[in-house]
Specification:
Structural class: alpha/beta
Strand order of the largest sheet: 1-3-2-4-9-8-5-6-7
Helix content: 25-40%
Largest sheet: 9 strands, parallel
Radius of gyration: 18 Å
Shape: globular
Amino acid sequence: MTAVDHPPAPWSGRDDGPGPAHLRWHSAISPFTPETSPGASVLVGFRSDEGVRRNKGRTGAAAGPAALRQALSSMALPRPASVMDAGDIAVEDGDLESGQRRLGAVVTELLDNGHFVTVLGGGHEVAYASYLGIASGAAVTAGARLGVLNLDAHFDLRADPTPSSGTPFRQMAEAEAAAGRALNYAVLGISQPSNTAALFETAAELGVRYRLDEDCTTGQLAGVRGFVEEFLAAVDVVYMTIDLDVLPASVAPGVSAPAAYGVPLEVLERVCDLVAGSGKLALLDVAELNPELDIDNRTARTAARLIHRIVTRHDVRLN
C-alpha cells in the first residue's frame, strides 16, 4: 500500500468487558494491512489546516483527526464490524498540494481494493484530495458517473490562484472539464449571507444544485429527501463530504466559521441514512473540526456520531 506519513496509533477507551456485547470502536478497530479482505471500513487522517490558513480562516483543524478518533473510540458498536485505521497523511511546511496528492493515492488504492473509505480532516482542502482519490479510481475511470454531495454552508467555488479550503470544488470542476466531463456537484445547507453573489453566479454557471440552510429545517424533510434522491438517481458512485460548519454553532462551535443558522443534526442524519443506504456511497470525509475552538468536545462528538451512523449503516448494507 502507498505509504502514509504517520502509522496508526493504538486506540483506547472505556472497557466494560469482553465479547460482542461490550463492543466499542476501540476494541473493534485494528491497523490496516494490505491483506485486509475487501469490504472493510477504513479510516485515513488528513492533518492539514494549510488550506484554512490560505483562506484566512482560524487554524487548528490539523488536530482534527486525533480528536475524531478520540470521540469515536468509546462509542458502542451495535454488532461486530470490520473497521481499520490506515494512519495519517500530514501537510507540513505549507506543502498542501503534495499532501493532497499523497492522500489521493492512498484513497485510490483503498477504493480499488474494495474498501469503504472515511477521511478524517483537516480543513476542507481535504475535499480536493478526496476527489483526486475517487476520480483516479477504477470505477470512475471505467465510466461510472461520479456525484459529489457536500453538506456545507459554503460553495467553496472560489477562483483564487492559490488553492485553499475555499477552492476545492472549483478545482474539481476544472479537473472534470479537463477529463471531458461535467462535475455533478450538489450542496445542502448553503448560507446565503456566507456566499457572495459572485459565488452564486459561479454555481449557476457550473450547474451546481443546492438547497439553502433555511430550506433544510426539520419541517422540510420531504423537500430535503427529494433533493437527495434526485441527486442519487443521476449518479453511480458517490463521494460525500461533511463540512461541520453546516451545523448550528450551538452544536458545532469548534469550526473555523461557526454557523449563525445551520442545518439541524436530525436533518443531516436523515441525509446520511439515505446516502449510506443507497449502495452508491464509496467515500466519505469530515472536515473543519478545530479542537482548539471546540466547547465540551461538542463538535467532535457530533462529527463522530455522524461517522458512526454512516459506517454502521454501510456495514449492514455490505453484510
